[in-house]
Amino acid sequence: MTESDQRPGPGLRVVATAANEAEAELFRQRLAQAGIQAQSERVIGGPEFGSSGARYVYVAAADLERARELLEPPHEGDPGSGIGA
What is the pLDDT of residue 10? Predict the structure, then answer.
């Protein structure tokens, strides 16, 4: 997952880069559960051919920090991470 300040429109920021459409949808669902609206867009322009290809996941600038925290992978030893437990 890569974070960036690129944006498709006013007030939107990239919170993550997903490997494909399915991963982008998982990110969007996780954010939606926390009340954060997100949208995704292919990294490269041009026609859409199936669900392959990386996607940027965008959120409102005001939600950026909270969204980053929600999408952050669990750290080793964190409660509930299943690692080091």
Answer: 73
**To which CATH superfamily is domain 12-71 assigned?**
Hypothetical protein rpa1041 (3.30.70.1530)
Name which of 14, 66, 5, 11 is nearest 36 in CA terms.
Answer: 66
Chain centroid to CA 53: 14
Sheet of 12-18, strands arranged across = 12-18, 55-60, 38-42
CA torsion through residues 83, 75, 80, 3, sign: negative
Q: What is the pTM of this model?
A: 0.73
What's phi and psi for 57, nearest 5 deg? -110, 120
Q: Which residues pair with 38 in a beta bridge?
A: 59
Q: Quick check: 18 and 30 in contact, CB under 8 A?
A: no
